[in-house]
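COURSE: Structural Biology Practicum
ASSIGNMENT: Worksheet 4, Part C
STUDENT ID: 0417
INSTRUCTIONS: Below are two proteins. For each, the amino acid sequence is given first, followed by its structure token string. Answer the questions at the end about the second protein only.

PROTEIN I
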Amino acid sequence: MPVKGVSVQGLGLGTARGAVPRARIAVYKVCWLRGGCGGDLTKAVNDAIMDGVDIVSASISEAVSSPRLYIDTTWPSANFNAMRHGVLVSLTAGNKGPGLYRVANTEPWVMTVANSAGSGTDYETYVNLGDGKRFLVAGANPHDTGKTMMPLALGSDVKLPGYNETSARGFTVCRPEEIDPKLAQGKFILCEAVMTVREIFDLVGCAGVLVRSAKPDDMFDQERGRYMSQRRKAPVVILSQQDFQYLLAYYRNATSAGGVATASIEKSVDAPDSKPRAATSSSRGPSKVDINILKPDISAPGVNVIAAMSGDFGPAYDMQTGTSMSCPHASGVAAYIKSFHPDWSPAFVKSAVMTTATPMVPSASNKVYELAYGAGQINPLGALDPGLVYDLQEIDYVKYLCQWSNFNQSAILALSGVRDWECSKLPLEKGWTLNYPSFSIPGVPDQPFVSVFHRTLTNVGNPPTSNYKAIVSAPEGLEIIVEPSVLAFTQNLEKLSYTITIKGLIKKGGDVLSAYLVWTDGRHSVRSPIIAFERPKDIEAIYEEQMEQPHG
């Protein structure tokens, strides 16, 4: 049943309803206080298969760094089993952006969902200083604090005795256990850093918290959506590094003269609608397992999402951000497709979601294009009638796994549960030869490359007799040739193949090259992203380096 009047203290007011209102939902408990257990995950997926579930949606991220782990860990194996039984598994890309090589759940038989901001999920929040300065800050604030000016205090000024830790810059790292509620009472606290978002929620007694952004100023716009929660008793907002320096100077000038520095934090208002963009925290590709397969697959709204909460945990609804919020949106689209096409395979559904996605644009400061958002933003209505789809069967994935030297008969049996296949008797599939709805090209920098892909499209459009023409768009540095350039379909489920040749050169240290191929009959547009990027010398080294950095 739709729930009217849902909001977070007035923010995001609207009606809450499911993606497929008449769908039946089966819920399986797999996560506990210390996270999820592999055995519980496997049993839940197997139970879902036995219960006749069509789509499995799991907001769980598991980073697999080697193909061997597809069989050494239970999660990918369970998802493979779901695919074998016609169940599409929709998983999160993870929340370790914006560094590269952090995307999780990279198996080609699952749908990996990134997190997008914008498109109605942005809010504007302003901070006013006592000297008349006004800043646009990040962090939605549901608290109606008005424009009442409150005194400012450094985090170091309101600490309990014995706590005086400062950062390398000489400013305060705020921890809730170090703050004296009596000293913080009625003040806005300035913090250069906080340990975790959850700890911010525990800062009690103060009127609010103003945090210095950890992002460079040219990436500050991507901070929106952080630190938003109705569970907080006071507003928490983020200032750009430049604005925070101004705020700090204002505070010191005012207090050094014996005065009081003051500020107010306004309640957030809806921001002008903006185009979808990749959220900063959303994990980026390429896949560490196989850089020849573009991951993530798709993006969905996941910033400032109003989500139902457990009554024992907090309010009935709260705002949440992350791929745990975006994944259910994409899963809902998949369920929506299955409600119209119950006989479609997981590959059909996933292809429909990807090839009908709304194109996205990268941020000016982080031009990794589809490595951040996959094929683009979900388009539920368009996905119902994709026209053409890229099909993949279980045998295709088995042939793909057989390319890895550590896969043999026992490994395939452990993963698929099928005894009939032996790698020695099968033609091998590489990542670039899989009939995938996207194209990934890792190139040696400053060396010309020629990549040839063979793909097959299945006709699911109406009318079944249609001529599809290939249209390509490529930036400087890429040349794309499609043969044949026209596919003439005469019946439903007919399969026709094409070859796409991509030539180019990737400059060392240069931007990712983003292009696309569209097959169109005038009614349908079947779009596939094409991404070319610099191949690293050592993926393992890059991955470890990225993992040592803060996740943002």
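PROTEIN II
(use this one for the questions)
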Amino acid sequence: MRFPRLTIFRILIISVTLLYLTFNTKTFRNAGLFLTGKSKYNKCFIDPRTDSKIISTKDGPEMAALIEKECALVDPSVRDDCVIPNVVHLTIGRKFRFENYLSVKSIHDIIKPDMIFVHGDVFPMENELFARAIKEFKLELVLSRKGDTVYNITVTKGEHMSDIVRMETLIRYGGMYFDLDVFVLKDMKPFLKKENEFVIGYQNKESHFGLNNGLMLSKRCSRFMIWWYRNYQTMNPKDWDYHSVKLPLKLYDMNPANVLAVDKELLSDWHNLPMFQKKYDPEFWKDVRAIHSFYRPYRTLMEKNKKVVDFETVKDIDNNFGRWARFILYGGPPL
């Protein structure tokens, strides 16, 4: 029996497609990529590489309109049936230091995400440590917009640009975001549950200072994140941390629905330089899953004392940071 050429061609296309889906579903096995409804946006996760070239050219008003359009198409029942995708998003600028390498290694080795996406409008490709990280941790570079506008507001500080890009990224794609000075000490599995739509850590809960946007885990089109993002229409670029830290806590206090705010498990405290220098206390660290280290003051202190922190010198640093670093680099007893 002979088949027409067109039929044979169709059979071949279908076979190749099925093989592709078989192997690639494994890559996103925990991301729920193929859980779809009627709309193409009814997915637990969307690969950011699919539209990075388009997104990189958009300004603030265009991005805000796109987010509203995409999230309006999401079926709430589909979102409720999703878990937070086991993928990680990072943002980067022109520098990549030793502490950034430690951060990425801890994410890769301990969380074991299906993918690690690095978003940026520029990448430090000449940086040897960054090139090493790309190869070792199979980082996927995603061209993003700069984040220099949000709605109709011009943004000038690099930190604020990163704040905006990370929010847009989590809302549109879903997953976990970590600043590049976050050190992961335990996996995030307890948070990746259907009932958790958005997870964030307090920044100094005792003083009720804020919620820290350096560690966030979110389903696509999280209702809290959309509400928070819309409030950027009133952003004052001269204010350092109101919209990124203080505002989300105010919103949470108004309506904590769809948010899991945690304290010690996702540890964040800007005034933590003494914590770096203390000797290791196993009782304190036993419940900590990740720490936003706010590494900059410690780096400044070490530079002031003309001390270099690298793969060799960290072997002999006798404080909390030295313990974290050796655990991340070489393994050993659980922290």
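ANSWER KEY EXCERPT:
Q1: The domain at 48-330 is CATH 3.90.550 (Spore Coat Polysaccharide Biosynthesis Protein SpsA; Chain A).
Q2: Confidence is low (pLDDT under 50) at residues 8-38.
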